[in-house]
Amino acid sequence: MSRYVEGVVAEWLRGPRRLPLDYSVESLRVADRIVAGVRAGQGADERAVAQALRGVGAYVGEVMVRAGGGSWVDLDDRQRDYFEQPVGVRMPDGRVWNPLGRALRRYDRGKGGRESLYVFYLLLHGRLDTAMPPA
């Protein structure tokens, strides 16, 4: 998956907007904006939307790997049925997370704070309350 993500990021960096994707936790805010842009163009080809969301989800997973110490794992049959994805990220505490599915959910549900990809990362480490500004 890491090699796939590097290809996706290289393609996005070559694009007209040259997105600042540096695998930092903060760059997940850019990932949120990418999903919002894909959502705004809902009339787009379904295949292109699915490909973009897979790329965003994979990017989120790679941030989990690089910044959070996780590792990509192939999901077993039970996990595949539950997550509806072939891969996930196992964090150092042993829990398996679903960044690909999270990107899809972010797209489906819009831009609520709890659906944010950035907030998703913060939830992995229990830092949500200290990282989010008061409402």
> Strand order within the widest sheet?
1-2-3
In round numbers, the mean pLDDT is 84
Order of helices and strands, N to C? HHHEHEEHHH
Oligomer type: single chain
C-alpha-based Rg, rounded: 14 Å
How many extended strands?
3
User: What portion of residues belong to β-strands?
Assistant: 5-15%
The number of helical runs is: 7
Which residue ranges are poorly predicted, with pLDDT under 50 across at least 5 consecutive positions? 126-135
Largest sheet: 3 strands, antiparallel
Structural class: mainly alpha
State the share of residues found in helices, binned by percent: 55-70%
Overall shape: it is: globular
How far apart are the first and last residues' alpha carbons, in Å? 36 Å
Describe the structure.
- The chain has 135 residues and is mostly helical.
- It has a 3-stranded antiparallel beta sheet with strand order 1-2-3, with helices on one face.
- The longest helix is centred in the middle third of the chain and has 23 residues, at 46-68.
- It has 7 helices and 3 strands, in the order H-H-H-E-H-E-E-H-H-H.
- The protein is 59% helix and 7% strand.
- Helix 2 (28-40) packs across helix 5 and helix 3 (46-68) crosses helix 5.
Throw out a few tags for this protein:
single chain, 135 residues, mainly alpha, 3-stranded antiparallel sheet, disordered C terminus
In short:
The protein has 135 residues and is mainly alpha-helical.
SSE topology:
Elements lengths: L1 H13 L13 H13 L5 H23 L2 E4 L2 H7 L3 E4 L5 E2 L1 H11 L7 H8 L3 H4 L4
Helix pairs in contact: 1-3, 2-3, 2-5, 3-5
